[in-house]
Amino acid sequence: MLKLCKFAFHLYLLMRCEILSFGGPEQNFSIQLRREILRTPLGLDFTNEELEQESSQVHIGCYLNTQLAGVLLLKNSADHTLKMRQVAVKNEFQKMGVGKEMVVYAEKWARDNGYKTMELNARQTAVPFYLKLNYTIQGSEFTEVGIPHSKMAKQL
Ligand SMILES: CC(C)(COP(=O)(O)OP(=O)(O)OC[C@H]1O[C@@H](n2cnc3c(N)ncnc32)[C@H](O)[C@@H]1OP(=O)(O)O)[C@@H](O)C(=O)NCCC(=O)NCCS
Predict the structure, then answer these.
(1) Mean pLDDT of the chain
(2) Which atom of ligand 1 is nearest to the CA of 101?
(3) Which residue segment(s) compose the domain that 94 sits in?
(4) Ligand 1 center from residue 26 Cα (angstroms)
(5) Which residues pair with 63 in a beta bridge?
(6) How far apart are CA 3 and CA 145, in angstroms?
(7) pLDDT: is 115 or 5 the higher one?
(8) Rounded Cα–Cα distance for residues 60 and 72 (Å)
(9) Does residue 64's CB lie within 6 angstroms of at least one atom of ligand 1?
(10) Could you tell me the distance, in angstroms and rounded to a whole number, from the CA of residue 97 to the centre of ligand 1?
(11) How confident is the model at residue 5 (pLDDT cuts 50, 70, 90)?
(12) What predicted TM-score, i.e. pTM, was given to this entire model?
């Protein structure tokens, strides 16, 4: 679905989420975006093995006009459960509704495909974002990629 989102005082951009194909140019943009937002700030990079495993996951992208502004991945977890991972929005497009639009799109995709639960490991800094989208914290804090995380989940 197309939506208008405000970028600057008098500038609006068209926002649209879609499934990205794996292996094409979109995949390279997605890796680049996630590397920039999720890995480089921590002094890390993806391993080839991690990237290869992504071939079986659902890749959702959000475009602002023609530019890829955000990405998230969905991985089959337990029965009827999907794990949302690698949620990243480019710095200059954060707090404009891109993250929320991608999560709403992912949840609809999950429901349409018979999933009942969405789960994720949230960075502590992103927990308030997921709380606003009605995810709840499950259990105690733990460390992943060297930073504190909480497991969160939502019944779809
Ligand atoms: C966290 C992230 C995905 C959120 O995406 P976003 O596009 O910036 O968020 P949105 O604009 O859709 O925000 C939706 C709501 O959550 C709020 N929100 C977003 N990020 C927040 C944060 N870190 N802390 C508190 N509130 C936040 C927004 O203010 C907005 O509130 P509103 O509905 O009352 O206006 C994005 O900021 C990001 O990529 N951060 C860096 C990487 C990261 O932490 N990824 C998550 C890994 S688990």
Answers:
(1) 95
(2) 12
(3) 3-118
(4) 23
(5) 16, 68
(6) 34
(7) 115
(8) 5
(9) no
(10) 8
(11) confident
(12) 0.96
147 CA to centre of ligand 1 in angstroms: 17
CATH number, position 51: 3.40.630.30
Task: Look at the chain and report how many structural domains it folds into.
Answer: 1
- Across residues 17-35, what is the average pLDDT? 93
CB 37 near ligand 1, within 6 Å = yes
Task: Please identify, by atom number, the ligand 1 atom nearest to the C-alpha of residue 72.
Answer: 3
Between 9-18, 87-96, 103-112, the lowest mean confidence (pLDDT) is in 9-18
Quick check: CB of 129 below 6 Å from ligand 1?
Answer: yes
Residue 16 pLDDT exceeds 90: yes
Whether ligand 1 lies within 6 angstroms of the CB of 33 is answered as: no
Is position 142 within any domain?
no
128 touches ligand 1 (CB under 6 Å): yes
Tell me how far CA of residue 99 lies from CA of 40, 78, 90, 96, in angstroms: 20, 24, 10, 8
Tell me the residue type at 62. Answer: C
pLDDT for position 82 = 98
Residue 126, sorted as left (phi over 0), alpha (psi -120 to 50) or beta, turns out to be alpha
